Amino acid sequence: EIVMTQSPATLSVSPGERATLSCRASQSVSSNLAWYQQKPGQAPRLLIYSTSTRATGIPARFSGSGSGTEFTLTISSLQSEDFAVYYCQQYNNWPPYPFGQGTKLEIK
Amino acid sequence: EVRLVESGGVVVQPGGSLRLSCVASGFTFDDYAMHWVRQAPGKGLEWVSLIRWDGGGTYYADSVKGRFTISRDNSKNSLYLQMNSLRAEDTALYYCVKDFYYSGSGNYGFGDYWGQGTLVTISS
Predict the structure, then answer these.
(1) Scanning every residue of chain B, which has its alpha carbon at the shortest distance from the alpha carbon of A98?
(2) Are the C-beta atoms of residues B44 and B93 closer than 8 Å to each other?
């Protein structure tokens, strides 16, 4: 069973700066990786799929990269609405479809 | 507009049973697989179960296998989760999630639309 590990657990960044979030898979998931954003009291929202494809309506400041076991979500210039928890999920080898434990992006 | 509305979450005693429902609208329900994903209070996301677009295949996390049963009624645009032998660790917000891939693709994967969740609490 694949284990997804996200780092760091908490990331403190100032508005306007770049944020880089990492996700590692315990074995290769090819490019079958998705990223979600979750704000307090809300359901998760799909941001990125297939490692680097933005979902409908997602701003261009969100980008994804990587392959195999190492993946990155980058937010190029943080806006106030971007402070949230971010999860990665693999869908290459299933079931299950494990999520990472999440990275909380907080205002510095 | 895609809409997923869950219901059925209540407080149940350990060992009890519960059936969650999800009514879908805004898309052709029987063209997509559906998932249940849960989130314990203050914790991360945990995938629970997947059902194929036609109900012909079902998959479960090890933590619920043998206790939970996912099903769907395409005539009612509805998804269900029958939960038996409930444990304290099943306490969570349960989300109904639409799979991204159209049935004709032969793929299953991630969720592109999520409901707001229904809260299940297991407590004596």
Answers:
(1) B47
(2) no
